[in-house]
Amino acid sequence: MTESKKLFVLREKLVSRRREIVGSYQTGSVELLNGDDVARIQSAIDSVDRAIADEKRAESSPADSRRLVSSASPGSV
């Protein structure tokens, strides 16, 4: 499994957890409600989104490098 796929799995877990927290707000008392839990989960989701973008760039970079190297002919320099 690639790193980006692992990050997608983690992101889905975080989104599920955020939904659980928001759902619990509907049944919780007003005194217990605050946005800190949702803000922490959302921050983690945002971090995972940035990591996914980084991994996608890293996964595509080696392929781009190989394509550039293989397209260069030995006598063209």
- Whole-number radius of gyration? 21 Å
Derived from helix and strand composition plus strand pairing, the structural class reads mainly alpha
The proportion of residues forming helix, as a percent range, comes to over 70%
Task: List low-confidence stretches.
Answer: 68-73
Mean pLDDT: 78
Report the major sheet.
none
Number of domains: 1
Which key terms come to mind for this protein?
77 residues; mainly alpha; 2 helices
Question: Could you give a short description of this structure?
Answer:
By secondary structure, this protein is mostly helical. The protein has one domain (3-58).
Give the SSE map.
Elements: H1 3-27, H2 36-71
Helix pairs in contact: 1-2
Please give a structural write-up.
- 79% of the residues lie in helices and 0% in strands.
- It has helices spanning 3-27, 36-71.
- The chain is mostly helical.
- The chain contains two helices and no strands.
